[in-house]
Design brief:
By secondary structure, the protein is of the alpha/beta class. The chain has six helices and ten strands; from the N terminus they run βαβαββαβββαβααββ. InterPro entries: Aldolase_TIM, tRNA-DUS-like.
Length: about 130
């Protein structure tokens, strides 16, 4: 498993076409559409760290995705083969004692699909 590294933002973004939408716009259909139209990287919507860490991982054979759910609510849906190493997970720490970003990055169940994790302006990547 690759180690978590900090990256120089200019090197990370140079020469790439990126979809980085505002809140509640980075769901799976928009990310897949952006990739279809040539995006190199796509960002997820911002996800509160506690929701992601408390979610259950479910393989969705109908949609060919991996879903992270709490009860009936889908916290994150990843089109694993189509998005592999092309999406950046945006995580927002819970204001009252959220887990540090290393906790999210070390979640092996999430880490294997993503290219990078963004915490505000700080980008951490795995490649």
């Amino acid at each position: 498993m690759p180690m978590l590294q900090s990256c120089d933002a200019s090197a990370f973004y140079t020469g790439k076409t990126i979809l980085a939408p505002m809140v509640r716009a980075g769901r799976t259909p928009l990310r897949l559409l952006a990739l279809e139209y040539g995006a190199d990287l796509v960002y997820t919507e911002e996800i509160v760290d506690q929701r992601l860490l408390n979610s259950r991982r479910i393989v969705n054979d109908v949609l060919h995705t991996v879903d992270y759910v709490i009860e009936e609510d889908v916290v994150l849906r990843v089109a694993t083969e189509r998005e592999r190493n092309k999406y950046v997970l945006q995580v927002m720490p819970w204001p009252t004692g959220g887990k540090p970003y290393e906790s999210i990055c070390d979640e092996r169940r999430i880490r294997r699909w993503i290219y990078a994790v963004a915490f505000g302006a700080a980008v951490q990547y795995f490649r």
